[in-house]
Structures are given as C-alpha cells and as structure tokens.
Amino acid sequence: MGVRKSSELFEKDIKMNQKPKVLLMEARENLFGHKRLNEAIINTISTITNLTIVFPEGWIKELPENVKYYSFEPKHKCMQKNAEQIIKSMECMRFARELDKKMHFDYIFFSASNVFAMVLSRMMYGMHEKRVLILHHNISDQLDESVIKRICFEIYKKKTRHVLIEDFMKHSFIKKHHVPETLVYSFPHPLNVMNQKFQLEYDYTGISNSNDDEWIRKIISKEEQDGVLRKNRIRMLLRSGKYKFDNGFLTVFRGRLEESEYYEIIMRSRVILIPFPKTFKYRISASVVDAFSNRKKVIGSNIPLIKKYEKDYPHICKIGIHMSDIIRDYYDKNQNDAKAEREFLHFSQRHSQEKLEKAFINIFSENAGEFLK
Question: How high is the pLDDT of residue 4?
Fold first, then answer.
C-alpha cells in the first residue's frame, strides 16, 4: 500500500510528468447545461493529469492538445423515461469499463450520474472507493424527493468519492447525508467572464431553466391587473416552461436559448433574477456565477444558495422576489457601488483559475497514494 501524497509532493510529480491517468465523462445522457462546466474542468485538470474524455462527437469544441477524446453517446430508447435514463447511464458506465480495461485509469471521474445506476457501479470497477469520483449537481435535492433514491444512495455513499461545487455545499452534504468527510471534496465554480460589451436593455432578467413557473404566473397576473412594471417603465425578461406574455415591459418566453443568446441577455441586464422554487436546495446555479463573473447583481428566492451569498456578499446579492421587493430595489438610492465592486472582486478571487486548480490538485493528491508512489 502506498502512502497518501500531500499536495506539494503531487505538484512535484506533475512537474516530473508523473501524472495520474484520469477518465472524465458524464455517466448519463449528456446535458447541455453542464457543457460549459465540463469544458472548464477539462481545461483545468488536463494540466495536472493525463486526461481522457468521453462525450458525444463534436460536444467539446476546443480541446487541449494533450487530451484524448473518445466519442460516445447512449442511444437506448424506452417508453418509460426513468427506465431509459437508467439504461443510458448503464451504457455509459459499460463504455467506461471497456476503456478502463484497455487504459488502466488511476481515476474515473463521472461529472454527472444517475442514482439508480450508480448502485451497480461498485461491481464494474476495481478499487471503487479509491478510484471513482462522482460530481454532484442536484443529487441531494433528488434524495429529498425520493425514498427509493435515498435507499440506493445509502448502498454506495461510503464506497465512492463525492465531489461538490463550492465548499459550503460540501459541508451541508456531509452533515445531511452522514458521508465520511474523507470521501468528500469540493471545488469553486469556475468564473465565466464575457469579454464583449453590450448596451443595457433590461432592468431585470431571469432566464434560467430552473425558474419557478408558479412565481412567473403570479408576476404575469400582477402585471395584468396593475401594470406595475409598465407604469414604472421597468423592463423585465423571464424564461418559463409554461407561460408566454409580453406587454412591452414584462416579457415572458418559452423555449431554449442558444448559448450566445443567453450570454448576450446576461450582459444586457442590470440585475439577474433567480426566482427558483423551494425544492432548489443543495446545489449551485451557474446563472448566479454568470452574473457575479460579469459584475451583475442578483436578487433571488429564499433558498440556501441565495441566503449564503447574501451573507457573504450583501451589496450584490439580495433575497426578495416579490414585486414590491423589485420596485424597492429599482428605486433604491442607497446602493453602495464601491462596496459592490469589492464584493465582485472578492467573489472573483475565491473562484479564480488558481483556486480551481488547487482544488483539483487536492482532490487527486488525497487519492494518489495507491498510484503515485
């Protein structure tokens, strides 16, 4: 048995080109919403590992030269959607197993997974607890909603490594699910700075696909009755899964946005709204990171993510999405721009590329004893 390596020794191994072999893929049908995060992870860990990735053909556009890219996409179709997702996840894990037999990876890093399929993962890869890492997106929230998923998670929670986005999510995960601290890691969500400049067009936008449609219904109803936004000439753009509305000031649309459209709207907005439902608890929103990365203030629902950021960054993040809160914010003359700028800077420093790389060095050095002797 090797001795667990410190981060310093691991960095020395990297300089000597003794890098661990890592496989990165989503153990499920690939989600467009994860694409930019996966790209940031690839760019970061490709500098400290010998990296192999598996994604659909053409999914990753710009790839570091030293990364091996295998194209794969699960194809199974089924009338029952949940069954289809489990089978697709198993297809992905079988593909990973075949690659592992040929290439003998030190680590298999699933950047998304399916709770049911992960139960069988323990039988597919040797030294599972030491080699397999899973990145949690909304799994904690899924466990709140399903007894069966909680039972499945109990089976493998102490037999794999868990990776959370943001340190405070890591601590809440450990406390809530009673997972040993030695099996849980975290990294800061990568920044996403847009270099293009756009003129402001909207006062408030909420264009995440996690928006609470019931809240949007109430906003539409309020505007139809009172015309508050129209009377105050406040322009608001919202994305909904159900509703459409447009009176020239409140615009609600349905459907998917192209990546370029999404980021242009962010840059044309003064404040980003995060009107998420109460079920959005133990996960991070890329929309918040996109906002802070580009010096846009956030107003959101009373959910753990917004409560944490309001505590850390009170001049750039607020709880309160009722119409009265929005009107109050619009006419607030006491906003301290200097303090807001300091908080934007603080957020950027906490989420810098340097911090991101150090977090992944820690993740791999903590596990490196068995492989990097």
Answer: 45
* Whole-number Å distance between alpha carbons of 135 and 112: 6
> What is the pLDDT, as a whole number, of residue 302?
96
Three-class DSSP category at 246: strand
- Say whether both 40 and 138 belong to one domain: yes
Write the DSSP assignment of 102-171 as a string of letters. Answer: HH--SEEEESS--HHHHHHHTTTSTTHHHHEEEE-SSHHHHHHH-HHHHHHHHHHTTSSEEEEESHHHHH
In a domain, 1, yes or no: no
Number of domains in the chain: 2
Where residue 358 sits, what CATH number does that domain have? 3.40.50.2000
Q: Can you list the pairs that 309-313 forms with residues at least 24 positions away whose Cβ atoms lie under 8 Å? A: 312/343, 312/346, 313/343, 313/346, 313/347
Which amino acid is it at 289?
A: V
Q: Are 298 and 322 in contact (CB under 8 A)?
A: no
Sign of the torsion angle spanned by Cα atoms 184, 8, 350, 210? negative
Q: What is the pTM of this model?
A: 0.88
Residue with the two structure tokens 């990973």: 96
Q: Is there a single domain that holds both residue 232 and residue 305?
A: yes
Strand bridging mode 250-254 / 245-246: antiparallel
Which structural domain, as residue segments, surrounds residue 251?
202-350
Mean pLDDT over residues 126-131, rounded?
Answer: 86
Q: What is the pLDDT of residues 257-271, one digit of tens each?
A: 988 999 999 999 999
- On whether both 180 and 242 belong to a single domain, the answer is no
Q: Which of 80-84, 183-187, 288-292, 355-359 has the lowest mean pLDDT?
A: 80-84
Element (H, E) at 298: strand 297-300
Distance CA 233, CA 245 (A): 16
Contact between 160 and 121 (Cβ < 8 Å): yes
Same domain, 344 and 357: no
